[in-house]
């Protein structure tokens, strides 16, 4: 059988538990309110984060697209660079060849310089000779002037002689024409005489034949011929 003291003790314990429960319940209510407040803040933060994430995702997609474009452009640049590198190698080879040719030209130029120095020396000598010739030409020029005066005189004399020669030539032509006419007449007469000579020769030949025949017959008669 429970005693009064035990009941009081139990009541006191229950009251203590009740007081503790209230404290716990108050703490639970406070925690629940805090959780609700945090949840609202967290949901707002999550919404903001989602929005920012979507924006970042869009930006990343854009960056990825741009990166693909840049990668394509880089591939093109790389190809062009390879081509430029090849062309550069070719140019380098050409430049090396030009350097070699330049060295050869430089050597040839040195040789030409030496030859030019020699020509310059020879030119100085020729210049001196030309000066001497110039002096001689001046002298010849004076002589030519004198000769031109003489030539003018000679030309006048020659013209006069030419006129006289022409006149004499004309007279000579006239004389030759007369002689030709006389010759033609004489040639005609000579031809006639030659014709007469031929006839005379033929007659003489016939006469000789007759004389021979007569002599031949006389001889035969004398010696008892026919």
Detail the topology: elements first, then pairings:
Elements: H1 4-222
Brief digest:
Keywords: Coiled coil. By secondary structure, the chain is mostly helical.
Structural features, described:
- The protein has 226 residues and is mainly α.
- It has one domain (47-205).
- Helix content is 97%, strand content 0%.
- The chain is rod-shaped, with a radius of gyration of 78 Å.
- The N and C termini lie far apart (249 Å).
- The model has no long low-confidence stretch (mean pLDDT 74).
- This is t-SNARE coiled-coil homology domain-containing protein.
- Keywords: Coiled coil.
- Residues 53-115 form a coiled coil.
**Arithmetic mean of pLDDT:** 74
How many structurally independent domains? 1
Strand content: under 5%
Oligomer: single chain
Tell me roughly what share of residues is in helical segments.
Answer: over 70%
| β-strand number | 0
| Regions with little confidence, pLDDT below 50 for 5+ residues | none
Largest sheet: none
Number of helices: 1
The string of secondary-structure elements, in order, is H
End-to-end C-alpha gap: 249 Å
Radius of gyration: 78 Å
What shape does the CA trace take? rod-shaped
Helix/strand-derived category reads mainly alpha
Keywords: Coiled coil
Protein name: t-SNARE coiled-coil homology domain-containing protein
Key words describing this protein structure:
226 residues; mainly alpha; 1 helix; coiled coil; t-SNARE coiled-coil homology domain-containing protein
